[in-house]
Amino acid sequence: MKEFVMLFRNAPTGENRPTPEIMQEFAKKWDNWLGGIAAQGKFVSGSRLGSEGKILKPGNVVTDGPYAEVKEILGGFISVKAESLEDAFAMTPGCPILLLGGYVEVRPIIPNNV
Amino acid sequence: MKEFIMVFRNAPMGGFTPTPEQIQAVDKQWGDWFATIIAQGKHGGGYRPGPDGKTAKPENVVTDGPYAEVKEILMGVSVLKVETIDEALEIAKGCPILQAGGTVEVRPVIFMN
Known about the structure:
Shape of chain A: globular
Number of strands of chain B: 6
Strand content of chain B: 35-45%
Largest interface: A-B, 43 and 44 residues
Oligomer: heterodimer
Distance between the termini of chain A: 19 Å
Order of helices and strands of chain B: EHEEEEHE
Number of strands of chain A: 6
Strand order of the largest sheet of chain B: 2-5-1-6
Structural class of chain A: alpha+beta
Radius of gyration of chain A: 16 Å
Strand content of chain A: 35-45%
Shape of chain B: globular
């Protein structure tokens, strides 16, 4: 089994905050989708990222909360076990971010990294 | 201890292929930098994705190796075990990608169950 990373990206929502009901509904959709991967023994680990952040550019230039100037932000990522890129990609249907206009990028992990 | 993530991005190299010496020199820079983070007990693992990939978009749209159409690609992610985002940012300042025109995005991790 190889490992693959799935990156979840979406457009910044800006001031447009979803209602608590919608957030709860989507939390459940994520649980169901991730639970399905875990039930097959293919879930390795995952991180959800907070919306605040800083970007460091060459020459020690730091920008805060860079999201006004970008079209999409990384919301989180998981790593999964699969035999091939195709097999890993076959897990993407049902990912709730696709219902919100976002997308899932699947990439192989180069092993033996620190 | 909290966790923060560093996201390393750079422009796609296109047709440029570095020499083995260049690859070795850059690997050493990364190895040295990670060694200082590990020595402080602040390294929390990471991934280096390969350059190939496949992207799922809404309405069943699939793109292969999406990198011709993007300005920068994600080269890797690395977790830091530190207390504040400013501490993470100080560590990020030593990242070799900054010498190659790339960027480091520092973000807090929200734990998933």
